[in-house]
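Ticket #4471: structure output looks truncated?

Reporter: J.K.
Steps to reproduce: submitted the chain below (416 residues) through the standard prediction queue, then opened the result file.
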Amino acid sequence: MSAKKIKKAKTAPPARRTPPARRIKPARRTENIKYAVRDILLVAEEARAAGKKMLFLNIGDPIKFDFKTPTFITDSICNALKSGETSYAPSEGTAGAVEAIRRDAQKRAIQNIQDVYVTSGGSEAIDLALTALLDKGDNLLLPCPGYPLYSAVLAKLEAVANPYYLDEENGWQPDVADIRRRINKKTRGLVIINPNNPTGSVVSLEVARKLVELALEFNLMLFVDEIYDKLVFDGEKHVSLASLSPDVPAITFNGLSKVYVGPGLRMGWGVVSGPEQIVGDYYRAIQKLCRARLSAPHATMAAIAPALYGNDAHLGPMMAKLLKRRDMTFEMLNSIPGISCVKPKGAFYAFPRLKNIKCTDEEWCHDLIKQTGVVTVHGTGFGQKPGTSHFRIVFLPDEKILAEAYGHIRKYQKGA
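Returned output as attached by the reporter:
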C-alpha cells in the first residue's frame, strides 16, 4: 500500500458578511448646543454662492477689519518661540504670566485672590469654571441678551440656563429684582458680562454693588466676564465686580482677544477670588481639570506680562475708530423706520430692536442676507425678552462698509 499522504481538498472559507451600515448617533447632550454667531454663516455661504456681495457684521474679530495685533504682542511671542518655549507649560500657566495676571487683578482692587489659571482663550476659562461647578440639573443665572457660549456649555453639562433679562429701557442694565425672583435651590451662580456682548452696555456702580450683595446673600458663585473692560465710551467707568467685596466668591475672566486685538492667539485666564474656606475646594477642582488638559499654549503666554504691565499705546487710535463707528451706527440705525437702538457704552456691538415685523427675527436676518448680503445675527441667538425682536450689529468695519450695510438695511426695511 502506498505511503503517500492523501491531501485533503481545500475548501473555500465562508464568505464574510458585511453588517449593514448603521448611522453613528451623537450624544443627546449635543442636541441643544447652538452658536448663532457662527451658525448664521451657513446662510451667508448660500448667499455668496448665489453671487451676492457680502458685508459681514456678525463676527467680533477686529483682525478681519482694519485693526492689527500690537507688535509688542507678536514680538514677545516670536521671541519666546526663538528661545525654545515650545514645551508643555505648567498647567496653571507660566510663573511670569500668572504673576502678571495676579498683579493686574490687585490693581483693579480685587482682594482675596486664591488662584489664577491661564487657558486657551477666555472660552476655555469659562468652560473649565462651569464644568468644575455644575452637576446635571443645576442652574446658572445668565444675562439675556448674553454671549451664547455660556448656554452652549450648560447644554454640554446637562445643566440648566436660568435667564434673567437686561432692561432695555434702562440702557440694558441688569434687573436685580428680576434676578432675585429667579433664584431657586438649584441655582449655583450668576454670570455678568461687563461690558456686555451683544448690547454694549456697561454695568453701573450702583447696580454692580447690588449684584455683589445678591451673590453674597444667596451664596452664589459670581462669574464676571470682563473681556472688553478697556473698550468703554463716553467717560464710562468700568468696575470689576469682584473688587466690591473681599467676601464674594468670584471668578473674573479676561484675555488677549479683544482689548489686545489677538482673538486667534487663544489666550485667556480666570482669577478666582473670595475667602479660602468658601472657594478652596472649588478652585482645586478647576486645577484638576487644568492638569487633565495639560496646558495652554506655552509661547503665547509670553505676551501676557507685556500686555498687563501697561503697554496700551494701541488703545488710543483703536478707541477713536470705534467711537466714530459707534456714533455712526447709533445715528443711522435710529433713522431707519421700524428700528430703534440703545447707544452702546462699551465693546463694539449694538443690539437694535425690530418693531412690528411680520416674521421672527431669525427669519428677518436670513432674508436680509439673501436679499442684500448684509450678515447680522438674530436676537434669539443671544436671548431676549419674550415678545421682542432684535439683531446684533458688529461695528468693527470701516465707515464706508458700515454706510453701505446700513443703506441696504434701510432699503430692505422700506420694502418689507
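Triage note (M.O.): checked the attachment and the full C-alpha cell line is present. The longest strand covers residues 160-167.
Status: closed, working as intended.
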